Amino acid sequence: MNKIKWVTQAIAQPCEIQKGLFPDFVNVADELAVEWEMALDELSDPEVSSQLTDEQKSAIKRLDDYMLSISGADNIQYWSNEALSQSVEWKNMREMAETILVTMKWEKSIPSKNDAIYITNSQ
């Protein structure tokens, strides 16, 4: 569960720490969403998901459902570096990530920058 732990710790961090996890050219809010979706793939493995309690699955689902509810073209305003630092939506996501950390018994430490995988806009 390395990916889900990394991204959950990253989402739980304050904006400036989140920005420090990625190169300057990256849209961090968007990247965190991509990292989250990639990390959820780990949970499709029955061996991994069977290790989770109902409380842990519920906490993860709550954050995922929330992210999905503010995704899409109509909600682009939530997926910028400005929104990352100022929006109530990101405050809510940080709190939900902290809940996941508590239910998983993971520390709220700053994840290693070296573990980040980022996408680039090659235009």
Describe the 3D structure.
The protein has 123 residues and is an all-alpha fold. The protein has one domain (2-107). 59% of the residues lie in helices and 0% in strands. The chain is built from seven helices and no strands. The chain has helices at residues 2-12, 15-20, 28-40, 46-49, 54-69, 81-86, 88-104. Helix 1 (2-12) packs antiparallel against helix 3 (28-40) and helix 5 (54-69) packs antiparallel against helix 7. The longest helix is centred in the last third of the chain and has 17 residues, at 88-104. It is globular, with a radius of gyration of 14 Å. The mean pLDDT is 91.
What keyword list fits this structure?
123 residues, 0% strand, single chain, mainly alpha, globular
Proportion of residues in extended strands: under 5%
Biggest β-sheet description: none
Task: State the low-pLDDT regions, or none.
Answer: none
Would you list the SSEs in sequence order as H and E? HHHHHHH
Q: What is the secondary structure topology, with strand pairs?
A:
Blueprint: H1 2-12, H2 15-20, H3 28-40, H4 46-49, H5 54-69, H6 81-86, H7 88-104
Helix pairs in contact: 1-3, 1-7, 5-7
Task: Produce a short descriptive summary.
By secondary structure, the protein is mainly α.
